[in-house]
Write a structure and sequence with these properties.
4 strands, alpha+beta, 94 residues, Gyrase A, domain 2, single chain
Length: 94
């Protein structure tokens, strides 16, 4: 999988307003009512990531979960990162 050109990254970012660009990664922090809810989210995310064979970096701080996506073997962002971010957004919508 090839690293995306900057103009493509910008187009993809426009479709994911809750995510921010951080170097060669995208990042989003989710806030939950408590630790158990945060862990429940991480567990559901684990199944999704495993099914896509694409795994985010996950930082858990009590009721906050920060996800960082990048395709390490491509040296930056690929369509896989934006596909996973979109699926995560869909799963948390509502």
């Amino acid at each position: 999988m090839d690293k995306l050109a900057q103009n493509v990254v910008e187009e993809c970012m426009a479709r994911l307003p809750e995510w921010s660009l951080s170097g060669d990664s995208i990042q989003r922090t989710f806030t939950f009512d408590d630790f158990n809810a945060a862990i429940g989210f991480v567990n559901s995310l684990a199944e999704m990531a495993e099914s896509m064979n694409h795994h985010p970096d996950i930082l858990i701080r009590w009721n906050k979960v920060t996800l960082t996506l990048s395709t390490h073997d491509a040296g930056g962002l690929t369509s896989r990162d934006f596909d996973l971010a979109g699926r995560i957004d869909e799963s948390t919508a509502g």
